[in-house]
Amino acid sequence: xxxxxxxxxxxxxxxSTITLFVNAGVEVREFGDATQExxxxxxxxxxxCLVCQNQxxxxxxxxxALDLRNKVFEMVTSDKTDKQVTDxxxxxxxxxxxxNPPLDLVTSILWxxxxxxxxxxxxxxxxxxxxxxKTKPVTLSNEEREKSRKLLAEKDDQA
Amino acid sequence: xxxxxxxxxxxxxxxVFLAIGLKNDxxxxxxxxxxxxxxxxxxxxxxAPDAKFGPALxxxxxxxxxxxxxxxxxxxxxxxxxxxxxxxDIVSIVGLNYRDxxxxxxxxxxxxxxxYRIIATDNDGSVGxxxxxxxxxxxxxxxxxxxxxxxxxxxLFPDEIYGTLVPLIKKLKQEPA
Lengths: 159, 177
What we know:
The structure holds two protein chains of two kinds.
Chain A: H1 2-22, H2 34-46, H3 63-77, H4 82-93, H5 108-134, H6 142-158
Chain B: H1 2-23, E1 43-45, E2 48-53, E3 63-68, H2 73-88, E4 92-98, H3 102-112, E5 118-122, H4 126-130, E6 138-142, E7 148-153, H5 158-174
């Protein structure tokens, strides 16, 4: 009985840590108005946490992510524009912090690539299909026709 | 022949890109701060909290700025090599004790030696943010004009120190202030 309560207690502790993880980035904050709150959440969703790299600031539990969330909050509530916030981050951590990469020379392949690749693929497919239908159907000479008929007949005999 | 050659060439190109990708270190993110002035700050010093340290104090000198904490493994790994570098007296090493407890930091240095000429204590991590620090240890090399010329992320080992850092320090010392 005692073991059962202990294990139940352990499970409870485990569950509570899980909810802690889920709640990363949900610090209690006092915003001036609803727009500020919306902008804050949009920004921390779009900024990458450099410590965990595949998480954004909103999802990360890293100390740095918390510090940067505080910074974003501070900037949003002091009426800085979204651009000022992202510029602040890019100045320090590079464009890598942006989950939405800007269009420039380096990222142009990323942005334009799909629009080039899809028509190119369709074009290649069309050329392939058209070429295939153009190839002449195979015609057999009389000799070959006779031979194949014989072969087919043999098969029938065996059956 | 062409029918087999084209896919083969495409395959080889793909393999080359994947091979390059394997060698890339995802932890390494090029710092946008290289070539820019080292961000200014004024922080209390670990062993003299009443005295402040800021980059302006070292203007005209080439110096290393090393972000570390007492509980970081990479920092402990590079520690003996920093001590060795400090003993050669080629460059001043300034520490940025990043989001650490001053007590623990002092305890560690008392035990294993202090390679730093000055240590700035960044208790709330705000200077770390200005320098784009995201994974201690990180090391910046700052030239005589106060410009960040080089950044290394991760523990400094002799290969890096004597292969890249020291030659660069010697070169930067030749430049006019």
